Amino acid sequence: MGSDTSALASWSSEQIALGRRWVQAWKNAGPELERIRRRELRQLDAYAAIALLCGPADYGEAPRAPKPTSGLIEQQRVFRKLRR
Residue 2 has what pLDDT? Predict the structure, then answer.
C-alpha cells in the first residue's frame, strides 16, 4: 500500500511534543464537554427546538395535532379484510 515510514517522521521533537500536548488537552476536555452537552440536552425545550428547525406551528391543530386514536382499530380492520 505504501511505505512503512511514519507520517510523523518529518516532525521535529518540538512538534511532536506540541502534538502530544494537543491530544492530551482534548482528552482532558472530553469529559467536561460531555457534561456540558448532557446539561444542554436536559434543558432543551423540544417545542422551541422544533420551532427553530421547522418554523412556528400550532401543534394543537391538524395536520400536526396528534390523532385521537393510535390507528390500531384501522389496522385491525385491514387485517380482518385480508383474512377473508
Answer: 62
* Distance between first and last Cα of the chain: 63
Indicate whether this model's pTM tops 0.70: no
Rounded CA separation 17/22 (Å): 9
Give the residue extent of every domain in the chain.
10-60
User: Is-cis flag, bond preceding 63, omega within 30?
Assistant: yes
Q: What are phi and psi of 19, to 5 degrees?
A: -60, -40
Q: How many C-beta neighbours within 10 Å does residue 51 have?
A: 13
Distance (Å, whole) CA 31 – CA 37: 10
